[in-house]
Amino acid sequence: MGWNAWNTYGCGATQSLIESVADSLVANGMRDAGYRYVNVDDCWMTRDANGNLTGNSNYPDLKGLGDYLHARGLKFGIYESPGAKTCAGYSGSAGHEVNDANTFASWGVDYLKYDYCESASSLSAQVADFATMRNALKATGRPIVFSINPNSGSNTGAGVTRDWGDVSDQARSTEDIGNQWWGQSWPNGIANIVTENATLAWRAKPGTFNDADMLEVGNGGLNTTEEQTHFALWAMMASPLIASANPSTVNATSLALLKNPRLIAIDQDTLGIQARVIGGSRLVNSSGSLVLAKPLSNGDVALALYNGSDSAQTLSTSLAAVGIPGTGTWTDQYTGSVVQSGAAAISTQVPAHGTAVYRVTAPGAPASWSTTFINPGAGAHGYEAEDPAHTIVAGRWTGNSGATFAACPACSGGQKVSWIGGTNKLYFNGVYAQNPGTYQVTVQYVNGGGDRDASIWTNGGNLQKVSFHGNGNWNATQTATVQLTLNAGYNTITFGNEYGGWAPDIDRISVPATG
């Protein structure tokens, strides 16, 4: 938890401003609520004649800034990039990683935001760049949180193509957040990020979290209901809570939300589990709904009913949906009020863009319920292309050119994904394999034209070209078997077409069981 300068000040931030923010975080109670990391973003740096990083005229004494923050019970965060230049065109760390890491340690830095701002030659090259700085930071002997953003340059889908936990403590899952509910083009809106980040619950755990980007609470672009949804779902998704509003002027309603102890406790719960999607409908543009469940360390469960649509909806969930027998006490996490006792389920009207959030204490819950809930069972697993718990599409930003979810009466779930090709991709996230190896994965698809090619990746690599037969009928499904290399545990399988034209429309995939 902390605060970052970028969304409010951009390159206009200065050392004196950061120091005043620190004082405001103490004065308004945000520090004591948990916002400890105060993070300088881009535009602070230059290099001296010996190639050493130093602050520019806006940051005359970065060691002094670290001391100022530490004296107030805060942590010092800073920004750099693995390329030659940062996103704003300042000196990057390429070729200077060891020296820069030692410099950060000497200044008392506690947190590094490492932002990939140049196009990588390959995903493996990007991984190597992050690993170089990770190793340099570890070698300093100072504990520095390593927070990366792989979604830049031509790598806008990198955040979802692989699990970045091997090279970072937290990784941005999506592109930049914007101060808006929905973004049809860059930057993301709140609903865009929820749509994507909710599918990545399988890879979040202590030591590696999905960073849904900074909080826009208090910045004025969202109404009160949308701010509640934003904060509550970031808490449910175990995202870092990094505020960006000016803490000296943030309005009282937004400040109270930022300091809400119940929602903060859900986010900071020591199990470190990201909420799983257990119900709802596909989020397309700003429509649809989700039901999310997050096990908590004391045996409780947090349940969120999210209405992404533009009109009120009545949404429901139950303890049985997460495997808890009997009844429980349901406490509203905005107000702290008990809304029902001795209840096994709840049904409530949720306003447009709103989210109802409950913490449920169920005396009848078995001690192992959360382990059973988050661990997949042995056996074969199937994944629908429209499943809001597992799939997202890329190339989604323009109204007519992105991969799309389309009605398909012949398809197993009544929908398919069409227009896959070029920059348009379909990601199946959280695909489970009991053991590592090569699997005969069945792809159910629709192709009423001639034979079509598809590019298929597993975990961002292992690219292969597969041809799918066309049967001349767009109202019937076909199946094909593809050999895919999967890791033990969870995987991401990506469909695209790097060879010109369109891939077939995808209905679902199935992964067989293995001993």
TrEMBL record:
Q: Does the keyword Ion transport apply?
A: no
Reactions it catalyzes: Hydrolysis of terminal, non-reducing alpha-D-galactose residues in alpha-D-galactosides, including galactose oligosaccharides, galactomannans and galactolipids
Where on the tree of life does the source sit, at the highest rank? Bacteria
Q: What is this protein called?
A: Alpha-galactosidase
Ranges where the CBM6 domain occurs: 381-512
Q: Which keywords does this Swiss-Prot/TrEMBL entry list?
A: Disulfide bond, Glycosidase, Hydrolase, Signal
Its Enzyme Commission number?
3.2.1.22
Family per similarity comment = Belongs to the glycosyl hydrolase 27 family.
